[in-house]
Fold:
Amino acid sequence: MSTTFRIAALAGDGIGPEVMKEAIAVLRAVEKKFSLSLQITEAPVGWAGIDAYGTALSDNVLQLCKDSHAILFGSVGLPDRDNTVPKDQRPERAALLRLRKEFSLYANLRPVRLYPELVHACPLRTERISKGVDVLVVRELTGGLYFGQPKVTTELPDGQKKAVDSMVYTTHEVERIAHVAFRAARLRRKLVTSTDKANVLESGILWRDVVTEVAKQYPDVTLEHMLADNAAMQLILNPGRFDVLLCENTFGDMLSDEAAALAGSLGMLPSASLGAATGAETTFGLYEPAGGSAPDIAGKGIANPLAQILSATLLLRYSLGLDREAAAVEAAIAKVIASGKQTRDVCAPENKSPVGTREMGQAICDAILA
Ligand code: IPM
Ligand code: MG
Structure:
C-alpha cells in the first residue's frame, strides 16, 4: 500500500508564485516517474494571505500546515506595502517567523554548492575557488536576536525612541543545534566551524562552551571555533576550507547570503527548516529558498527557480524519506546545468540567451522523466 504524502505549498509574494509553479511541476514529474502519490495543496500566505483572508497566516492555512507532512514555502514580503499594516502583522513576522516558531523549526540547513559549470558566476577569482565551494550552513532558527525578549521599542522622557532586541540562548538551544551540525558533518568532510562573538557577547561565550562540550560526543569530527566577523572574511578568502558552518540565527542569516553569492546567486540557495535533529528518521519541515521575494523581477518570468526546486528536493529527503527521488531531481538539475541552460542571474557573459523560469523548470521535468 502506498502512502499519500501531503504537502502544503505556500507560494507567497513576489517571485514566490512563479518559482513555486516550477517546483510543483518537478514534484509532479517525480510523482509520475516513481509512481508516488503526492497531495499538494496550495494556499496564500504573506501579502497574498492578507489580500485573500486579511492576515498573513490565517488559521485555516496554519491548520493545513499542521495536517501536512511538510511545507513547501515560497517567499513573503513586499517592502512597498510595509507601512500599510502594523509591524507585527507584516508577512515576515506574522507568517514566516510565526511558522518557524509554531513548529519549533530550530534547525535551518542551507547547502551551498558551486556547480562546476557556473564557476563564472562566482564573484571570486578562479584561483580562490580551486577547491570548489561546498558548505553546509547550519543556522539556529528559533532563538537568538530574532526571538529573544525583551524585543520592544519605547519612548524616552526626552522624546527619543529606544529599540531593544535581545540575543538570548539557553544551553539546551545551543546543544540541539550543535548536534545537528555534528551529525551533518559526519556525512560530509567531518569539520564543524562554529561561529560566535565570544570575544564580546555573553551568549557567544555560552555558545562556544556548549558547542565544545557537545563535540566530545563526536570524536570523529573536528571542531574549530571562529569569530563570526572572521568567518565572513575567510568565506571570501578561502571558501574551500569550510565544510559545516554552525551559526547563531542572525549570523547565519548574514553568512548564508554571503555563501550563496559564492554559489553564483541567491537564486541557487535552498533551505530546510527542521524541528527534529536530522538523522535517518523523517521529520516535519518547512522548505524555502533562502533568497527573498525579489519584487524587482517578479512577474517577468526570469527568476531562477532552482532554489525553490532544490528546496523541494530537501523536502523529499528529510520529510518524506524519499532519498532516491531526491537524488533523481539533483541529478536532473546537474544535467540541465551541465547542458548549458542558465537563468539570467547565473548567466555567463558569452551566453546571449538565458532561459526563463518556465523553461528551466520544464528542462528539469524533462530530465527527470527521460
Ligand atoms: C532568510 C530571510 C528571512 C530571515 C526574512 C525574510 C525574515 O532573510 O530566511 O534568510 O531573516 O530569516
Ligand atoms: Mg536571509
Remarks:
- The chain has a mean pLDDT of 96.
- The chain has two domains: 1-109+271-370, 123-262.
